[in-house]
């Protein structure tokens, strides 16, 4: 069975950087078989109805501004996978989850920034999925459980987001990490490793500094979906963890 990952995509500039996290991501694929396809859940595609990409070839979306010109010249020309998209739709049909097929949207940086580092040749077909931040945390986990069947067919699942992600309190290039970010991430690590989903589903009320760490839900949601993909074994391994820009957590969990 293929693994599934939660991967923090950090700032868009991650693809231009040379640090411990980018070095880790560049070697991540060496330890796993080549996937038949990649299903990537991205925090940068929000929708009230579940969206499934179904395109022949993806355009690269630059869904950010104010960054170096070099960043806007990067392309990730992945092709889509109609059959994989249809298979995902059938899984959602079985669980009575409403969805729509999207034939126009390209890859946002929540997807291509990671894929460019992990699979730079763009030679594996990709299906991109949206998130709905209005759904309860338990429902996000259920979506992951549904998607987990794809792993048995040789597909890699990547859930792209960020657990501590407060853009209003970023300190670019600062070596200082806020104490509240460290405290929240320590709590989170304990609960994920212990697979304490009851506590995790209530993190907004009980986790230390949750409001600072997670001012909006869309980047945290992929963690629940990722854990859902690993519900059968309920084992989580933290492969990498670091911080950037004062509070931005850079973590990779394997399920």
Mind sketching the topology for me?
Elements: E1 4-8, H1 20-27, E2 37-46, E3 50-53, H2 82-94, E4 99-102, H3 109-118, E5 126-131, H4 137-147, E6 155-161, H5 179-193, H6 197-201, H7 203-206, H8 210-213, H9 221-229, E7 237-244, E8 248-254
Parallel strand pairs: 1-6, 2-5, 2-6, 3-4
Antiparallel strand pairs: 1-8, 7-8
Helix pairs in contact: 4-9
Runs with pLDDT <50, length 5+? none
Largest sheet: spatial strand order: 5-2-6-1-8-7
**Average pLDDT for all residues:** 97
CATH superfamily: LigB-like
Structural class from helices and strands? alpha/beta
Oligomer: single chain
Strand fraction band?
15-25%
Q: How many β-strands, per DSSP?
A: 8
Largest β sheet strand count, sense and barrel closure: 6 strands, mixed
CA-CA gap between termini: 11 Å
InterPro entries: Extradiol_dOase_DODA, Xdiol_dOase_suB
Organism: Bacillus solimangrovi
Keywords: Dioxygenase, Metal-binding, Oxidoreductase, Zinc
Family: Belongs to the DODA-type extradiol aromatic ring-opening dioxygenase family.
In short:
This protein is α/β, with parallel strands linked by helices and 255 residues long. The chain contains nine helices and eight strands.
Short key terms for the protein model shown above:
20% strand, 255 residues, Protocatechuate 4,5-dioxygenase, Chain B, oxidoreductase activity, acting on single donors with incorporation of molecular oxygen, incorporation of two atoms of oxygen, 8 strands, two-stranded parallel ribbon, 9 helices, alpha/beta, 6-stranded mixed sheet
């Amino acid at each position: 069975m293929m693994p599934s990952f939660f991967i923090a995509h950090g700032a868009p500039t991650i693809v231009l950087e040379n640090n411990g996290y980018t070095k880790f991501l560049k070697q991540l694929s060496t330890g796993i078989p080549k996937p038949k396809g990649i299903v990537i859940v991205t925090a940068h595609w929000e929708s009230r109805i579940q969206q499934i990409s179904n395109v022949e070839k993806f355009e690269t979306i630059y869904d950010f501004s104010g960054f170096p010109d070099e960043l806007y010249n990067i392309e990730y020309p992945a092709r889509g996978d109609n059959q994989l998209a249809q298979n995902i739709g059938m899984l959602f049909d079985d669980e009575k989850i409403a969805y729509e097929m999207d034939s126009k949207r390209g890859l946002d940086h929540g997807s291509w920034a990671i894929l460019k580092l992990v699979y730079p040749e763009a030679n594996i077909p990709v299906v991109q999925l949206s998130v709905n931040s209005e759904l309860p945390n338990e429902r996000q986990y259920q979506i992951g459980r549904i998607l987990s069947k794809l792993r048995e067919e040789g597909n890699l699942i990547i859930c792209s987001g960020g657990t501590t992600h407060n853009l209003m309190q970023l300190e670019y290039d600062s070596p200082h990490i806020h104490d509240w970010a460290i405290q929240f991430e320590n709590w989170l690590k304990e609960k994920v490793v212990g697979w304490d989903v009851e506590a995790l589903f209530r993190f907004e009320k009980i986790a230390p500094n949750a409001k600072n760490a997670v001012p909006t839900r869309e980047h945290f949601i992929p963690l629940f979906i990722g854990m859902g993909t690993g519900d059968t074994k309920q084992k989580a391994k933290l492969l990498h963890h670091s911080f950037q820009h004062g509070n931005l957590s850079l973590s990779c969990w394997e399920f």
